[in-house]
Amino acid sequence: SQTYDHIIAERKCREQLGQCFLALSTIVPGLKKLDKSSVLGDAIKYMKFLQEKVKLLEEHATKKSFESVILLKKNNPTPADGNEFRVSNSPEERSLPEIEARSHNSQILIKIHCAHHRGILANIIYNVEKLNLRILNTSTTSFARISLHVTLHAEMEKEFNSTVKEVVVRIRAAL
């Protein structure tokens, strides 16, 4: 009756506990002994190891995102000298596009880092040529079809009458 029910309940509890220890022993790597105290002790050590690993990975991820923010903040609109200009949105608004242009004599170097979407490269080339710049060389790199880095080396045609700042602002407006 009551004693019998208590014995059955104890037996079920021991069976469940045994199954839990068996399941735990399959999860913990490198177990040498399979007695309950060894399984439990090694499981505790393994949990502490995993917690430390998570902590290190979180610190690493935080450090990476912090470095990215610094890089973006450095690229706020700042004229460097008469022949160089850089513009990007503030990180609070949007981090892309970033555009940098430098000129020397009749040559201009334009670097664009923007979001990748269909037709963006054709749009960039079209708008650069519209500014009376003849493209001599183009280099593009796409990262995971998310962002695009374009470097254009162009020559100013006779009809070119813009400043480097105007080139950056016009390309920016076209994106």
User: How large is the share of residues in beta strands?
Assistant: 25-35%
Total tally of structural domains: 2
- The helix-and-strand class reads alpha+beta
Query: Strand order within the widest sheet?
Result: 1-2-3-4-6-5
Quickly count the helices: 4
Question: Into which percent range does the helicity of residues fall?
Answer: 40-55%
Rounded mean pLDDT score: 81
Shape: rod-shaped
Uncertain segments are 65-80, 88-93
The SSE order reads HHEEEEHEEH
Radius of gyration: 31 Å
Number of strands: 6
State the major sheet.
6 strands, antiparallel
Protein name: BHLH domain-containing protein
Pfam family, one: bHLH-TF_ACT-like_plant
GO molecular function, one term: protein dimerization activity
Domain BHLH: 1-50
Describe it:
- With 175 residues, the protein is an alpha+beta fold.
- It folds into two domains: 2-72, MYOD Basic-Helix-Loop-Helix Domain, subunit B (Irregular), CATH 4.10.280; 77-174, 2-Layer Sandwich (Alpha-Beta Plaits).
- It is built from four helices and six strands; from the N terminus they run H-H-E-E-E-E-H-E-E-H.
- A six-stranded antiparallel beta sheet has the order 1-2-3-4-6-5, with helices on one face.
- Strand 1 and strand 2 form a beta hairpin.
- Helix 1 (2-27) crosses helix 2 (36-74) and helix 3 runs antiparallel to helix 4.
- The radius of gyration is 31 Å and the shape is rod-shaped.
